[in-house]
Structure prediction request, 533 residues.
Amino acid sequence: MTEPASVSPAGLDQPAGDEPCLDVSASEWRGAARELVSQGFTFFDWLTAVDQTDDESDPPGTPGFDVVLHVLDISTPGALRGHLLRTRIPDGAALPSLTGLFAGAAWHERETHEMFGIDVEGFDDGTGLGLRPLLLPEGFEGTPLRKSFMLAARASKPWPGAKEPGEGHDAPKSPGRRRVQAPGVPPPEWGPR
Amino acid sequence: MTVDLPAPRVGPLAEHAPEPIKVVLNWGRRYSLWVFNFGLACCAIEFIAASMARHDFIRLGVIPFAPGPRQADLMVVSGTVTDKMAPAVRRLYDQMPEPKYVISFGACSNSGGPYWDSYCVTKGVDTIIPVDVYVPGCPPRPEALLQGIVRLQEKIAGESLSGREIQRRYAGGRVASAGEVQRALVTAGSIPGRGDALVPRPGQPVPEPVPQPLPEAVAQPLPESRGPDTVAIPMTAAPVGSFDPETAFFPPVADHPEAPAEHTSSAPPSGPETTVIPAVVPPPPPVGDPTTPPSPPAAAPNPRRGNGAPDAGRGRRGAGRHRPEHTLADDIFELGDDDE
Prediction:
């Protein structure tokens, strides 16, 4: 296949895998998706986001959220082709909605909105209710898939097992190992655990 | 439409029957447990396996064909209870007729399991409904469920069910009218212990997750009397020859005065309730395939903390077995303590 020439790569790293990935700016998001549809990628597979707000390594990319779209070309039986489309949205910016192109993108955009707090501009799923919670329980506050979201259970409810390598009941005897500080693990100032 | 239901009671014959008749009535109840499987995750597959021909809990009188919670005596919560599903669990429990029993099957429904720090997983189903028997494991083998059923049947055989008793035990956690059972689902904010989203604010004290009071419809506290009666099943299958339910499940806790009350060490308000009737209470058959090696000792609960956790291997403590500091069963009881 030929890459759509109308969009310019943003210079980000290519994800592993044999599927092509196209990096576009947020303003080109809808146009690039429409271009992919015109090339035969008519099947909307999924849309999600990756929290890259702590991305310091890549000078061309500004920290924000990588929104990724996966579409499939299902025209040829036995030769399924996939294509990824990726854009980076700074924290607080809005993502252009794809609901005008794929009606099924509405659920994914709602989920991305509630999990990452990314606003979606032009969202229309035909109900007029807008971006409302899809999966989270009623009354949930926060955006749990952001790296800044703290897993409060770790601070409020002790777990008797080993949460990280080097912890656990035999931790004093085990050789010292640097504590893994994964996103979402409350820092020490949250209190003793 | 709201229709006031009468208070739960047993019939006048059962109320005033002499003790041998009550034994027979309990015998009938323990061996006709219509079960309602709240299958939420992979543990439900183990439940289904336990109901199939190889393990076949129908031979214990557990009948897995209840058309719904309103016809069920026993609810088995098998799988991960999420905060979104928790209101439905509570609602269906409310719809079950008394007397009703709950088995929490698997690590997730016991305590949240491996998803304990998730933003959306309830930290144990006992934060929303009273649990009679905990079956640890991830997932537990079907034999473990059989063991849990046997433990529950022993508990049923030992109880004396009068109208006053059934009201004392259930009326607290029971909704009193049909309209309330048909109410809209309770909101997630009303569930104590749910995984609240707390976004840290630098420089500010960490907010404590405060359990919000239940709305009025479900504001009754969970029945107090059921807490001490809960028992847990050790994951380690007891050896066939050395099975002794007293030492296996209820190690003496005299040296741990701070330990919570236990089934045998604390006399319930009505003493005869726990009387074991040898004529109709056979010793529980040893569960666990003899050909199956016992689970690793990391699964065995720890007796050191003396919090009522079962310990199948207490008699062999000095044998140099590796023992963990904390176990899942410990956390189960910690969860229970938090709710008091």
Remarks:
- Confidence is low (pLDDT under 50) at residues 190-204, 214-324, 326-340 of chain B.
- DSSP finds ten helices and six strands in chain B.
- Residues 128 and 229 of chain B are 17 Å apart (CA to CA).
